[in-house]
Amino acid sequence: MVVFHDLNLPYDANQKQLKRSISCAEKLGYDVVAVGHHCTVIDKTSPIPAPPPVDLDSDQTDRNQPVKQLSRVTVVLGDGAQTHRLRADNVQSYDILAVQPTNNKMFHMACTALEIDIISVNMAEKVPFYFKTHPVKCALERGVYFEIPYAPAIRDSTIRRHVISNALNLVRACRGRNIIISSFANKPLELRGPHDVVNLGLLFGMNENQAKDAVQRNCRAVIMHAATRKSIRSSMDIQDISQISEQDTWKVKSSQEASGFEETSTQDSASKAKKRKRQRDFNEDRKGGEKMKKR
Predict the structure, then answer these.
(1) Chain centre distance of CA 156
(2) What pTM did the predictor assign?
């Protein structure tokens, strides 16, 4: 079964406007939407705990199963002082946790260290840093996803150029992997159907399968990552060294170097070689002495 997602529908205090946006997304064919709070400061009062799902009128939907509503919070990160507050209860009460880094340092930290689900860069302006290969690769390995919001491109032609340029750079850095496309629509008129969003993915440099995954498979992976982030703190996989692929042997060598095991094993092998040499010399001297006695 094909399930379409829009994981960034901004929260509106006006419940009627929010209800219209969710109803419009449902009519366009979306099965899952995430209503998100956008906050620049994290303290005891901000962000507010995740709000309950909006009750939709039965006459506003044509489907038997209503759209699934999730909660999301996007935290703007400008310095490292805010990162430890991401573990606060009011932040963890949301289904999906996203961050918006504003500089290279925070982008690197979000990719390599922070326990988050989505990295959402402000595509409406020129990004003040480069999408470097190393942090992006770390994010891909950790199961963190990058987001491209399309609604800002609808509002203004200048912003549209920034969105397309930034999206092309991001897709190039990620090679089309671990990317989701969401709306970030402030009103129902800015929403587009899932198939139109897939066509936008082609414009952003993805191939057809990657563009479909950006509204289907990748979004489902984000939801699963968020669920495991809350329930599973760590996991361990024990595997014999002989069964590790050649691609992953560098991990074994790195861990040995870090623990000093490789240095110890090298010293042990050197001492064993010396013992073998002494034993060999002793045996040769003994044989030579026996020959001299026979003569």
Answers:
(1) 29
(2) 0.73
